[in-house]
Amino acid sequence: MVKTTLKIDGMMCGMCEAHVNDAIRKAVPEAKKVTSSHTKGESSFVTETEPMADKLKEEIDKTGYTVLSVNTEEYKKKFFGFC
Asked: In sequence order, which residues have a C-beta less than 8 Å from that of residue 83 and are 6 or more positions away?
């Protein structure tokens, strides 16, 4: 699995976060755990394969926000063991 983190300019409130999350889900329908933070200026989500950065940027740009960077890294699910 892959975690993608986007640095986004222009988010000012919770409604902005919702608009960006919707744009991410539209660009990457298989995205899971989609979250955004206007205070941090970033959004992140998890997918099975690396998403197309151009498609993400295009969808988010349509909403009036600007993608500053796209970073992907391997995602490891956290397990809480009882040993």
From this structure: none
Rounded to the nearest angstrom, the gap between the alpha carbon of residue 61 and the centroid of all alpha carbons in its chain is: 13
The CATH-assigned architecture of domain 2-74 is 2-Layer Sandwich (3.30)
The model carries a pTM of: 0.87
Amino acid (one-letter) located at 76: K
Q: Assign 9 a pLDDT band (cuts: 50, 70, 90).
A: very high
To the nearest 5 percent, what fractions of the chain are helix, strand and coil? 30, 35, 35
- Helix or strand or coil: residue 19? helix
| pLDDT tens-place string over residues 23-67 | 999 999 999 999 999 999 999 999 999 999 999 999 999 999 999
Question: Residue 54: which residues within 8 A CB-CB, separation 6 or more?
Answer: none
Please, are residues 24 and 59 in contact by the beta-carbon 8 Å criterion? yes
